[in-house]
Design a protein that fits this description.
The protein has 433 residues and is an all-alpha fold. Helix content is 81%, strand content 0%.
């Protein structure tokens, strides 16, 4: 069967699964460096805020940040993952990323606005001023644009550019916050820290845009709202099963139980940097390899090798990290948290077991998405959510804080089974080698 000129161009342009940042291994290094640096800066920013603000002000600071990041994610509506996949697969030119996103972002503006209005209503006018809300709106717009540019960079496999943008923004925000807190009056610390945060996001967005390039707004293919919808649903369900369990535990138990599990959950969040990096690196590489399969230039064997190597590169360190956390949990809690958090030790040990399982599932889910199977990932996430709800309702009254930690671990097993079935459906396994 003869190939068209377009097929040959695609094979040429996507002929190597390497980027300006180097191989997948190099890209993984940049992801870990960038995310690690950003997390350290965020911890530093939180520490500065805790020292500079009273409890009520810190609540406004943390609440506004959470609302803004959520609104930016809602505005994204799964388009970031879709953009990464389509650029990596050669279906959207890297220089046309902004024009490709414009259609979806315009349609999701009402969702973005609604999420902001709802969040501001929850925060209330007594706790925050119009100036603070204005800062929040500007930050949400910047973060939304930054997420789009970062998605384009991931599609180009420029992971060094992603690391620079993310780390630069977070560290600039921390530096500006420290400088302003030391120079302004204490009653202005809240506004100062929010302005510093906005300045950091501005710098991060500028670095991301400079690296990605603006490109043409009108020329080139447009991303489909329909194609983005399953990815958006996945994000919503994932947020639900990662955060809804705390609300459910609160309804079923006491504040002490909630506090113990929340501590374990936050430690789990910190350890998820490895699984998250694996999922991020796999998506564009798997999408590019899948585009080769579609034109007959390769087979699924290349993607299987990519997945196996990612499991080894991320899964084994995740297993080691989980073992360290389980063994050192008593020391960590006693040394850093004190005797009041002794009830968190066993939940930490239990939830640590989930990390290598999440590493396996996250990489496999990214491959399924890259092969246009986002709907199957939705099914896996819904299975996880159902498992979490059922186990918490049944076990929290009996086992306390250990129950949600156990649910957060056990849920990964049915997720893996669903993803393995999905992998066969998208012809990752069982196809010709």
């Amino acid at each position: 069967m003869s190939r068209s000129r377009g097929d040959l161009d695609l094979a040429t342009s996507a002929g190597s699964a390497r980027s300006s940042s180097g191989s997948a291994r190099t890209g993984l290094m940049w992801i870990l460096l960038g995310d690690g640096a950003a997390k350290v800066a965020l911890i530093g920013t939180s520490a500065v805020a805790l020292l500079a603000l009273n409890v009520g002000q810190f609540g406004v600071f943390a609440g506004l940040q959470a609302a803004i990041y959520l609104s930016a994610a809602i505005w994204d509506f799964g388009s970031g993952q879709l953009l990464t996949r389509e650029i990596a697969g050669g279906r959207v030119p890297a220089a046309a990323w902004l024009g490709a996103l414009a259609h979806i972002r315009l349609r999701t503006l009402p969702l973005w606005l609604g999420s902001l209005v709802g969040s501001f209503a929850i925060l209330g006018t007594d706790a925050a001023s119009p100036v603070i809300y204005a800062i929040g709106i500007c930050a949400s717009l910047l973060i939304g644009l930054q997420l789009a540019a970062i998605s384009a960079l991931r599609g180009r496999m420029d992971f060094r550019g992603v690391a620079k943008a993310v780390a630069a923004g977070r560290w600039a925000g921390l530096g500006a916050g420290v400088a302003l807190v030391l120079t302004v009056d204490p009653e202005d610390h809240l506004h100062a820290l929010l302005i510093a945060w906005l300045a950091g996001e501005l710098l991060g967005t500028m670095v991301a845009l400079h690296t990605a390039g603006i490109g043409a707004l009108r020329n080139g293919p447009k991303l489909s709202f329909k194609a983005a919808a399953p990815l958006a649903l996945n994000s919503i369900v994932q947020i639900g099963y990662n955060r809804f369990d705390l609300i459910l535990v609160a309804a079923l138990s006491t504040p002490v139980v909630v506090g113990a599990y929340a501590t374990a959950s936050r430690i789990q969040d910190a350890m998820l940097i490895l699984p998250s990096a694996g999922a991020t690196i796999v998506l564009p590489f798997a999408a590019r390899l899948y585009s080769h399969e579609m034109i007959g230039a390769s087979t699924a064997a290349g993607t299987r090798r990519l997945l196996t190597r990612t499991w080894l590169a991320i899964g084994l360190p995740s297993l080691a990290l989980a073992l360290c956390a389980a063994v050192l949990a008593p020391t960590i809690v006693t040394t850093f948290l004190g005797p009041n958090y002794q009830q968190a030790i066993v939940p930490i040990q239990v939830i640590a077991v989930s990390i290598p399982l999440v590493a396996v599932n996250s990489a496999l889910a990214s491959v399924v998405v890259a092969r246009h199977g986002a709907g199957y990932v939705t099914s896996a996430l819904l299975v996880a959510l159902t498992t979490v709800i059922a186990m918490n309702v049944a076990l929290v009254p009996v086992m306390g804080a250990v129950a949600p930690a156990l649910a957060a671990t056990v849920r990964e097993v049915p997720v893996l089974l669903v993803l393995l079935i999905a992998a066969r459906r998208v012809r990752l396994f069982g196809g010709r080698a």
